[in-house]
Prior knowledge:
By secondary structure, the protein is mainly alpha-helical. It has one domain (33-201). It has seven helices and no strands. The protein starts with 16 loop residues before the first helix and ends with a helix.
Amino acid sequence: MDDRPHTDVDEQPPASPAEALAIIEREQARQEPDIAPFFVVWGVVWMVIGLAWSGAGFGVWPDTAAGIATAAVIVLSMIASGVLGARLGRGVAGPTQHFGAMYGWAWTLSMIGTGVLVGALARLGGPGVGVLAPALFVFVVGAMYTLGGAFWRSRLDYGLGLALQVIAVVSAFTPLPWNSLLMGLGGGGAMIATGVLRRVRR
């Protein structure tokens, strides 16, 4: 009689290094906090903002309406992110909590710094500000996801970061208001897809 405890992992050794890596990634995904809602929430935000400003650019509604919609969804998403972050942070301590705090501050400082750069760019004036300013934000967000994906060995996050950087570069050469539509649907869609894939792979 075999009294050894059984596990979910197949007792047979992996047939190849690729299979071994896939097993490791599946086990890591089960142990990691479920951050898929973050991607979905912010993906929806990007879509709303992109559609709002592209609609304003096409004359569907005034810029004021787009600005109000942008402010509203950002405030709501920040509240939702705070609630989700508080739930995920329960029971997390030690190096993981410390690194999470550092990474969170890196995001905050990066966004503030990018905002300052955009303000400086706006002071210089010129017709290209409306195209370059959002592209700069998207590129920095993509860079942060790429770095985070490389550190955590998450191919999904790394791929999302690369996709956002490509979208940012392409949007910089896309005229108004099509650039807003590109970043909203392309960038927001990529984030939502990442969130869905994260949930499916758990």
